Amino acid sequence: MSGEETYNTERNLYLLLRRQGPSTLSEISMSLGISKMGALKWINKLESQGKIERKIKKLDVGRPAFVFSLTPESNIQGDNTGSEKILMDLLNFIKRMQYDDIADQFLRQRYERFYSEVFNKFQGKDFSTKLDILRELRERDGYMPEIKQNPSENYNLIEYNCPIYRISSVYPIACELERRLFEDLLGTPVENSHRQTNGKNNCVFSIKRRGRD
Is the pTM of this model over 0.85? Predict the structure, then answer.
């Protein structure tokens, strides 16, 4: 299996559990279109990495079965690598030493730099195109985004992965800065109704459309 196929299978399993919640082996196998043995292989791999956990569930009929779900810190881009551990140790040290203003300044400058880098991509574009650009940028950065129009004809940006999960767990201002970034790039109000750091399965940003293009 190629590296791309491996990535896609892991991604599809991850998205399935994000969207569907706790699932049995049969449900996972059927949804992914692979054998139970193949599904179990990927489950075991992610379980060994601490991204999936299993629990026994009593079914209405038959014997109890295992159900599989994502762990609270199961972000694919959030592996506990050496470099990330050092970063988290540093952020926690800053927090303990009450130097929060340094972390706050760092995060603000990070988003200001990102805004400057992508600003021109949004200029002169209609609202629909801006949404597409935003989705592509978030996909590029590993957020696994999906944009859906809701009944009120506004939009929800749903992100199934949070590469900055551990950082935003320590400094929630990171989530607020992302919300403001979206407002500035889209030129319209944005609200953050769901956050993975608050125990939700995904992050949801509600985007209000102003008028018509």
Answer: no
